[in-house]
Each structure stands twice: as structure tokens, then as C-alpha cells.
Amino acid sequence: MPGSIGSCSLDRTLPALPWLVAEDAAGEVCGYAYAGKHRERPAYQWSVDTTVYIRADQRGLGIGRALYERLLAILRELGYCQAFAGIALPNAGSVALHQALGFEPIGVYRGVGYKHGAWHDVGWWQKTLRADAAPTNVTSFGGVATGHEQARSQSAPTSP
């Protein structure tokens, strides 16, 4: 699975920020969403970068939306104020998902991401989670949520 979950990333991120994992009917990971620090400096402690990845055969089923809605709700509860997402362009599906969830485009880094043998622009989107005039301390997450059915039942449409 491209963009697969690396134990190094989990070990570094999970004590403070959430990773949500969806499983298919066979119990295999079919998607995940997580947040990481936006920047290391203290002034940015209320901002996070977010990522969602859904296995190709599971796209369009509402899994990405369900994972992302849960992730954003958890981040809001933890006290984060801004979420950012970088999308390697072109990626119409990811752009549509982020905009449907209220992310707004804020800029493009030109030729900054190299994958599949070519340089790609990376577009950046931003979503306000909380508009606190004076932010409160953020709370650590310290856990991981799993379960395809849990994620889908919260907000994704069911199949006919």
C-alpha cells in the first residue's frame, strides 16, 4: 500500500497526535488518517498537518471522509486551531475531499514533490478548527483508533 504506515512515524507521532485506521471486511488496513506537528517552534503548537490515504480499491466508498471527519473532531477536542493539508498535484479526488470538508486552498509549492519519476507541485489547503482568540493548551492524544465499521458508521453513506 503506497504511503504505508511506518513504525517510525507512528512511534514519533502517536504519543501526542491521532492515527485513525480503517479495515476492510477481511481485517486488512484499507485506509488511514493522521495528524503531525505543523512546525517545531512553539508559536505553531496549535497547528497540525493532516494526511489521509485510502487504498485504491476502497476509494469512493466514504471511508476517507469518515476517517477525516473523526480526525478533525478529535483535533478540535484536543485544542488544535488550524489544520493544513498538502496535496501532490494533480489529484482531483483529494482536492474534492478536502474542499468538501471545508479546507480552503492557500497556495502551491512549485516542483517540490518528487514521485513516480517526476516533479510535482504540492497544493496547500487550510481549515480552521477553532477560532480561539487566546488558545488553550493542547492535550496529547496517546492512542489509536481502528475499525472500518466504526469509521463508516459515523458519517459515511451505506451501500444499497
UniProtKB/TrEMBL annotation:
Residues 1-130 form the N-acetyltransferase domain. Residues 141-160 are annotated as: Disordered. CDD domains: NAT_SF. Signal peptide: none annotated. Gene3D superfamilies: 3.40.630.30. Transmembrane segments: none annotated. This is GNAT family N-acetyltransferase.
